[in-house]
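Collaborator request, handled under Task 6.
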Amino acid sequence: MSERDDSRLVSASLAGDTGAFAELVEKYQKPLYNTALRIIGNCEDAQDITQNTFLKAYDKLGDYRREHQFFSWIYRILINESLNLRKVTGRYEPLSEHLATSNPGPDQEHDAQVLSERIEMCLRQLPYDSRMVIVLRHFNDFTYDEMSALLSIPTKTVKSRLFTARRALADILKRHGVRYGNP
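Structure tokens returned to the collaborator:
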């Protein structure tokens, strides 16, 4: 589904077609949830953030400006919801998802689970801004320009934050004995 399809669905939603908004929810629910989960680190909070994001998007759909991509607009709402929860709770919990491998055996599953938990623990040690750029770039494959639009900061700042965040994460991983990259 393209951005043009998103625009058509937004128009239909504004005209009262609730099925059109349901299609937008279907399209963006999983990536929004996964982003919230990686940012916040708690399944229940990620579900709440995702639901609140869609509720706010529906309420503010008339404010959406068509010159921007829909996914950037809704991701910005998600990021704001995540920031709001972070301000209220100030807590992060371990993620329950595990790194996926194709047909892993029990030993591989255990190793992947341990590695995933260690990486997630290290990721949570980063400052929020650093964690945000790592999650957007490496877990959601956003481009620098997309991240710039989502975070409302210049592309140069995105690159700088990402560079700094990668170095900090590498140091944290190294301190915790987590091997990454090529041997």
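The cover message to the collaborator said: "The mean pLDDT is 81. The domain at 1-91 is CATH 1.10.1740.10 (Rna Polymerase Sigma Factor; Chain: A). Please let us know whether this matches your experimental observations."
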